[in-house]
Amino acid sequence: MDARDDAAGDESDFDRLVDELVDLAYRSATSAGALLRDERPRELEITAKSSPTDVVTQMDRAAEEHLAAMILRERPGDAILGEEGGARPGSTPVTWIVDPLDGTTNYLYGIPLWSVSVGVVVGDVVVAGVVCAPELSLTYIAGRGRGAREESRRGARTLQVSAVTDLGQSLISTGFGYDSDQRRRQAEALVTVAPRVRDVRRLGSAAIDLCWVAAGLTDAYVESRLHPWDVAAGALIAREAGARVVGDDDPVQAPYVMAAAPGIADNLMRLLDATQG
Ligand code: LIP
Q: What pTM value is reported for the model?
């Protein structure tokens, strides 16, 4: 029995379910994004989590509560796995994997590169993903097998990864964890990669990193020690836009999560594998 059999009878039922999940993911992500943008207080209450630089604010929690309320109002039996709320069990094959505020440090500093990421899994297959970046007026949407699209001030467009084939001409984004030993290892790997590519960017939101590969704004994104909520939606969006994506099925344990234009994916993976001590 696969996810289709569990969740719905035949193909058309499953397709209707995916459409419903994409729609609810879109409405909940954009609504939570508006809350974060429009109701940000003058003073943020900051609490440290895994390290002094891994922080959570009252807005992270408020956004996750907002997402859960919208989702469970329409689909009360679904499970939710959220960065701030842990795991809420469900009675259906559907699980919502949400990062209510991806790029918390950027949000804290007033840097506009932050997002709300909502991924939806049926059985063990990610079927819907929405990433909303409200300060940039950008929303990225994908349904499994339906391609990926961007909505912006300029309207809507279908997403397609870049056609780059030369690693030395590629623009790569990456990120660093909150643990100092992990950051050292990530920086050491970057010493190997940086001289072999055009340039490197560090945006601060994994979900946006993945969507910008899908949009062709960067040619690849690589980061290690991420969490399922960082990547669930963005990995689907990148894959549906034609990216090669690895590591997203177990982002905590994988050597790295990578989303790359297909023309450079093999060479980039060879380079990354050489950095794995
Ligand atoms: C962040 C990621 C970012 C990573 C940070 C952090 P958060 O998520 O989006 O790419 O480099 O270490 O994990 O903590 O802002 O939700």
A: 0.95
